[in-house]
Amino acid sequence: MQSFLAREKTIRLNPELSNVQVVEFENRLQEKVVGQERAVHKIAQVYQVYLASLASPTKPLGNLLFLGPTGSGKTYLVESVAEILFENRQAFLKVDCAEFQHTHEIAKLIGSPPGYLGHRETPAALSQENLNRYRTKQNDFSLVLFDEIEKASDTLWQLLLGILDRATLTLGDNHKVDFSKTIIFMTSNLGAREIRHLVEGSVGFAPPVAQDRATSELDQKIYRTALEAAKRKFPPEFMNRIDGVVVFRSLSQSHFQKILELELSLIQERIFRGSSQRFFFRCADEAKDILLREGIDPTYGARNLKRVLDQKLVVPIANLLATGQLRTGDFLTVDYDRTQQRLIFSKYERAAEPVDSREGDSQPSLSEAAPAVSRDNAVAA
To answer: What pTM was estimated for this model as a whole?
Structure first.
């Protein structure tokens, strides 16, 4: 026995490491959701516990409250999680809490008791069947989103206490629903007015070092403001059942630049998936700068940038397609004309070369024809 103990060796372990599957999940999520590393890491931790089979059988896998300004990506993050894990951005059960501001509307969630008028016509939205709809063998759990939780009635908050604490819900027909294999997300814009005053004028085209320092200080103020607003709104027993409160940071100029590139790639995907005419397009750097200047709005976050892209890019491209000016194989270039102060849309064409009749009917190959911009087809937006 003594010789055995002498051969013992202490090996230090690193609990900070994640397995390959979780690392890949976290990296893919960070590629889709810009600037919210803390929220992404928190979800990755919940996923790690699930994969290790160490989650409590009497609680949901995770109860997460997302706070922060509008347009910072709270709902978008949940959609991205669903897309990565279930290959469907809508693979989660969403409860729009603005629809449950009155006590009687809770029947839409748990169903009416037997004997009440409309009992059979009011199926429970939080039924076990709906909860299990998107589960797979690889990811045998569900995602539930309570969007804008602060707008719900006190009755819904009381209903959530049992779900967050015991992972069970009793429906109107006395059937039990099991939430132990569920990640529950709650989003809120609490403190939005105070946050709006904080972020006004805070995002701009400032030097990177100065802007990063200002953004860090702003994030701390936003965190304190949002957390204090949540504590004022929700009772202590509700806050005490939440596993993690994540305050989404304000988006900086560098974040908006990454979001712009991501949205441009998504527009290209839409062209190839949905359009009958498949073509490539590219935005010049000056055009991107203009889109950023018009799209950056600290008050409305990334949503305003998406609206600008719809107005300045998607609608003009749709018009070009509808009028037959763009066809399959074209290469569209979007640039900015300083004289006209607007975006210019041009496409590249292969210049036809004259053919010597003495050489027969041979035609030049595509590789031999030099591309030329067709200025006759240029369109200003």
So the answer is: 0.79
